[in-house]
Amino acid sequence: LATLFLDRIEASDLNAFLHVDRELTLAQAKAADARLAGNDAGPLTGIPIAHKDIFVTRGWRTTAGSKMLENYVSPFDATVVEQFNAAGTVTLGKLNCDEFAMGSGNENSHYGPVKNPWDKTAVPGGSSGGSAAAVAARLAPAATATDTGGSIRQPASLCGVTGIKPTYGSVSRFGMIAFASSLDQGGPIAKTAEDCGLLLNAMTGFDERDSTSMQRPRENFNCALNNTLQGLRIGVPKEFFGAGLAADVEQAVRAALAEFEKLGATLVDISLPKTELSIPVYYVIAPAEASSNLSRFDGVRYGHRAADYKDLADMYKKSRAEGFGDEVKRRILVGSYVLSHGYYDAYYLQAQKIRRLIAQDFQSALEGDNRQCDVIMGPVAPTVAWDLGDKTDDPVANYLADIFTLSTSLAGLPGMSIPCGFGQGEKNGKRPVGLQIIGKYFDEARLLNVAHQFQ
Ligand code: GLN
């Protein structure tokens, strides 16, 4: 199996993989074979998997898509990687992504953009563009990814595969290179909901090395896959279907909703009035946290160090100027600004207050005696994948494309993307559309059930 996928990866021109190492992979495959022969195997033993290059991996380089970490090899494994290794998966390599996971099109990677396998003139989405493209092109049966404001769901949508961002706190962030710590969450991208459930079974769980890790009993996420959808109430937020939503995306999403009605579900009109505010709120909070997290890259301990410098301050400045790309610098500037004296109250604190209101919108729809629905559905992204190069000079155009994924992240809720059809805009191939399914806290098993019944 590992050889089959390695051969495909070698023959591919998508730029989905940043590091491949046949020897390392085949050594792991041999170990898995031994476990299979010795009756010491679990459901994932011997299954090839690829990791987003933001999870640190012993023996492999981990760059986070940045020049800053071009030659970085971690001395330890991220918890997620450790868990998969223990389950016996075989690492195929490390996947391209936007630099420090900042982006929506994978065009902010220092190592070049990833191509969308459905149409190589289109972006794969981001920041987990390598993960989604690799699974869509069958270069890997499954991949890890991270989602801070949509980076699992949006590339899954744009590449026509399935991805789930679990409830914040479910997957350990230890060894997952930090972007915005109160939002970052790992999760799987795979072909189906069932596969995602198997992967979640391996990658979730309490980790004392992550202070926001949740202490909960182990769960089998695939326990409810075959439950009927009879009586399921699906909330359809009007704010997810307003101006800005492309007609072809709306059509595919509405057709999917009609399918769910046929499966016995009822559609309920709901309102999440603060949706629009999620863009300004996220683009204050995420850069603020990023500016703090990225201060560790100083050229002293690890990462890029400038060749020539006058003194220590000059070394910091030059190393950071050379090591970070434009989008990362933009966020450090914005983040430092909103956290600075005199602006903290005006921007950062305000954003935190609105974040709470955004979470309350979801709470009143999904929880309590007056709840209106069991899950929420809508589009993942306002359009199908755009052309490579179309939005590279326009950061705000990239930010606006995150409108339907940011609020779920700000609230810490689980969200999922499943393929639901194709839109127009094709040049050389079809461009997929994803359906987003959002649930209450820790309701992943239900989301997977709902998705599985559709798939
Ligand atoms: N597109 C969003 C951003 O650039 C989300 C990225 C992510 O989820 N990592 O911040």
UniProtKB/TrEMBL annotation:
EC number, UniProt record: 6.3.5.7
Keyword DNA repair: no
Catalytic reaction list: L-glutamyl-tRNA(Gln) + L-glutamine + ATP + H2O = L-glutaminyl-tRNA(Gln) + L-glutamate + ADP + phosphate + H(+)
Keywords: ATP-binding, Ligase, Nucleotide-binding, Protein biosynthesis
Active site, per annotation: 52, 127, 151
Short name of any one Pfam family annotated for the protein: Amidase
Leading EC class: ligase
Domain Amidase: 1-448
UniProt cross-references to InterPro entries, sorted A to Z: Amidase, Amidase_CS, Amidase_dom, AS_sf, GatA
Oligomer status and interactors: Heterotrimer of A, B and C subunits.
Family to which the UniProt record says this protein belongs: Belongs to the amidase family. GatA subfamily.
Known function: Allows the formation of correctly charged Gln-tRNA(Gln) through the transamidation of misacylated Glu-tRNA(Gln) in organisms which lack glutaminyl-tRNA synthetase. The reaction takes place in the presence of glutamine and ATP through an activated gamma-phospho-Glu-tRNA(Gln).
Protein name: Glutamyl-tRNA(Gln) amidotransferase subunit A
Species name: Herbaspirillum chlorophenolicum
